[in-house]
C-alpha cells in the first residue's frame, strides 16, 4: 500500500495535486470574468450612447469620442501594460487593472456631464491595457502546455468571440429596463467578485533577469498605436482628410522607428522574435483580419435589427445570441479536435465558413425575415469564428518564454484592437458609398440595406483572407497540443 509523502508545507502530495488542478480551473474562471468585462465594454456602451447623449447634452462629435477614447487609450498602452505586468507582477497588475477599471466605470456611471463621461472612458481604456495582458499572461503561465491549455484557451477564445454579442444583449436589458448609467456601473460588482476571489487564489509571477524598461520603445509604440487607432477613427468622416492621412502616416512612421529601436535594444519592450516567428506571425495577421470583420459585422447587424427590422435594444441583443451559442457549442468540439488535427486545418477552414455566413448576410432584403436571412448566417459565423479563436490564442502564445508572457499577450490583444479600428473605419466608409449609391434610386429603408450588404460582403472578403494566411504560416505540428503540461518553446 502506498503512503502519501508530505509536500513542502507538510501536506500530502496526493492531496495537493488535485487541489492544485482544481485551483487552475478557478484561475480560469477569474481570468474569464476579467476578459468578459473588457470585451463587454466594447459593445455594451454602444447601446447606451443615444440615451446618454440626450441626457448629458452631448454633440455627435462628443458621442463618437465616447467610443474613440476607450479604443485610443486601450490600444496605445497595451504593449506597455503587458511589459509592466511582466516586470511588476501579473497578479498585482491584474488586481490593480481590475480595480482601476471598476473605479473608472463607476465614474462614468455617475457622470453628470459629457466631459466626465469622456474622462472615465479614457481611464477605462488605460486600466484595460494593464488588465487584459495580465489576465492572458496569467492564463498562459497557469496552463503552460498540454490538453488542459487547449481547453482553457477554448474558454478564453469563446469569450473573445462571443462576448461582444453578450454585451449587446446586456446593454439592451440595462438600457431598456434601467438606464444607460448601469451599462457602466455593471462592471463594478463584476470587478469586486474578481478581486475578492483573485487575491487569495492567484499566484504571483514575473519575469526573471533584467527588468529594465525600454523607455524609447514604450514612447514610440504608444504614440504609434495611438496615431493609427485615431487615424482610422477619423476616417469615418472621410479618407481624403489631412487629419486622417496625417495620423495614419505618423503612426506608420513611429511604428517603423519602434521596430528599428527594438532590433537594436538590449532590453526591448517587444522582443522581435515574438512577432517574427512564422506560426505566431500567422496568428497575429489572422487576428487582425478576424477582428476587423467581426466588429464591423456586429455593428451593422445591430443597426439592421433595430432600424430595418424594428427591434428594441433588448430584442436586438436577443437576436444576436445565436451566434454566441454557435461559438460556445463549437468551441467545445474544436478544443477536442485541435490535438487531433492541429491548428492549420482549423484556422484555414474557419475563416471560409465564417465568410460564408457573411455572404448569406449580404443578401438581406428590406422585407426579409430574421429566421430565413439572418439566423442561418449567424450559425455559420459562430461555427467559423470558433474554429479560428480556439487555436488562434494557443498558437499566438505557444512557445513564449514565461518572461515574455505579458508583452506577448498584449501583442495578441493589440492585433485585435487594431483590426477592430481598421474594420470600423473601412466598413463605415463602404457603408456610406453603398447607401449613397442607392439614395436617389430608392427611398425608405432600401439604401440602408444596400449599405449593410456592402459591409457584409467586404467583411466576408476580409475574413477569407485569413484562410490562405493560416494555411501558409501556421505550421505548428498537432503533437504540440498533446504533450504534458510543461512549457513548450518554439523559439
The fourth-level CATH homologous superfamily of the largest domain is MFS general substrate transporter like domains
Mean of residue pLDDT? 83
Tell me what the CATH architecture of the largest domain is: Up-down Bundle
The main β sheet shows up as: none
Number of helices: 19
Low-confidence runs: 1-19, 484-491
Total separate domains: 2
How many DSSP E strands? 0
CATH topology of the largest domain: Growth Hormone, Chain: A
Helix- and strand-based class? mainly alpha
Rg for CA atoms: 22 Å
- Identify the CATH class of the largest domain: Mainly Alpha
Q: Calculate the terminal CA-CA distance, rounded to whole Å.
A: 44 Å
Residue share in β-strands = under 5%
Overall shape: globular
List the secondary-structure elements in sequence, H or E.
HHHHHHHHHHHHHHHHHHH
Please bin the fraction of helical residues.
over 70%
Could you write a compact summary of the structure shown?
Helix content is 78%, strand content 0%.
Describe this entry's structure for a reader.
With 491 residues, the chain is mainly α. It has two domains: 21-203 and 269-473, MFS general substrate transporter like domains (Growth Hormone, Chain: A, Up-down Bundle); 214-268. 78% of the residues lie in helices and 0% in strands. It has 19 helices and no strands. The longest helix is centred in the C-terminal third of the chain and has 35 residues, at 405-439. It is globular and about 65 Å long.
Amino acid at each position: 500500500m502506498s503512503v502519501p509523502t508530505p509536500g513542502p508545507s507538510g501536506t500530502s502530495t496526493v492531496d495537493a495535486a488535485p487541489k492544485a488542478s482544481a485551483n487552475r480551473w478557478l484561475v480560469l474562471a477569474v481570468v474569464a470574468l476579467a476578459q468578459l468585462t473588457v470585451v463587454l465594454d466594447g459593445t455594451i456602451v454602444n447601446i447606451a450612447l443615444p440615451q446618454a447623449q440626450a441626457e448629458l447634452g452631448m454633440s455627435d462629435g462628443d458621442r463618437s469620442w465616447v467610443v474613440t477614447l476607450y479604443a485610443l487609450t486601450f490600444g496605445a498602452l497595451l504593449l506597455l501594460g503587458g511589459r509592466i505586468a511582466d516586470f511588476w507582477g501579473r497578479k498585482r497588475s491584474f488586481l490593480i487593472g481590475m480595480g482601476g477599471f471598476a473605479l473608472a466605470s463607476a465614474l462614468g456611471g455617475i457622470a453628470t456631464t459629457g466631459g466626465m463621461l469622456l474622462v472615465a472612458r479614457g481611464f477605462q481604456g488605460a486600466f484595460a491595457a494593464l488588465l487584459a495582458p495580465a489576465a492572458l499572461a496569467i492564463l498562459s503561465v497557469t496552463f503552460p502546455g498540454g490538453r488542459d491549455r487547449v481547453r482553457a484557451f477554448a474558454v478564453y477564445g469563446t469569450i473573445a468571440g462571443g462576448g461582444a454579442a453578450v454585451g449587446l444583449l446586456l446593454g439592451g436589458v440595462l438600457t431598456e429596463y434601467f438606464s444607460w448609467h448601469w451599462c457602466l456601473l455593471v462592471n463594478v460588482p463584476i470587478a469586486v467578485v474578481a478581486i475578492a476571489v483573485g487575491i487569495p487564489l492567484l499566484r504571483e509571477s514575473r519575469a526573471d533577469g533584467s527588468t529594465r524598461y525600454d523607455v524609447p520603445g514604450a514612447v514610440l509604440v504608444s504614440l504609434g498605436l495611438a496615431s493609427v487607432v485615431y487615424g482610422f477613427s477619423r476616417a469615418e468622416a472621410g479618407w481624403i482628410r489631412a487629419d486622417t492621412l496625417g495620423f495614419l502616416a505618423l503612426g506608420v512612421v513611429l511604428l517603423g522607428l519602434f521596430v528599428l529601436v527594438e532590433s537594436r535594444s538590449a532590453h526591448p519592450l517587444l522582443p522581435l522574435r515574438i512577432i517574427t516567428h512564422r506560426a505566431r506571425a500567422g496568428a497575429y495577421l489572422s487576428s487582425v483580419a478576424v477582428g476587423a470583420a467581426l466588429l464591423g459585422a456586429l455593428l451593422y447587424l445591430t443597426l439592421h435589427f433595430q432600424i430595418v427590422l424594428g427591434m428594441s435594444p433588448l430584442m436586438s441583443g436577443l437576436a444576436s445570441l445565436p451566434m454566441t451559442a454557435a461559438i460556445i457549442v463549437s468551441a467545445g468540439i474544436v478544443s477536442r479536435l485541435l490535438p487531433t488535427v492541429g491548428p492549420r486545418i482549423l484556422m484555414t477552414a474557419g475563416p471560409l465558413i465564417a465568410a460564408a455566413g457573411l455572404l448569406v448576410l449580404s443578401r438581406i432584403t428590406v422585407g426579409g425575415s430574421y429566421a430565413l436571412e439572418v439566423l442561418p448566417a449567424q450559425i455559420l459565423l459562430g461555427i467559423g469564428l470558433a474554429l479560428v479563436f480556439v487555436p488562434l490564442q494557443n498558437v499566438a502564445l505557444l512557445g513564449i518564454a514565461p518572461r515574455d508572457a505579458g508583452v506577448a499577450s498584449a501583442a495578441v490583444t493589440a492585433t485585435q484592437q487594431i483590426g477592430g479600428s481598421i474594420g470600423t473605419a473601412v466598413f463605415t466608409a463602404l457603408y456610406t458609398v453603398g447607401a449613397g449609391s442607392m439614395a436617389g434610386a430608392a427611398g425608405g429603408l432600401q439604401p440602408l440595406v444596400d449599405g449593410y450588404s456592402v459591409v457584409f460582403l467586404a467583411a466576408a472578403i476580409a475574413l477569407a483572407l485569413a484562410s490562405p494566411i493560416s494555411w501558409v504560416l501556421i505550421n505548428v505540428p498537432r503533437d504540440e497540443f498533446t504533450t504534458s503540461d510543461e512549457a513548450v518553446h518554439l523559439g
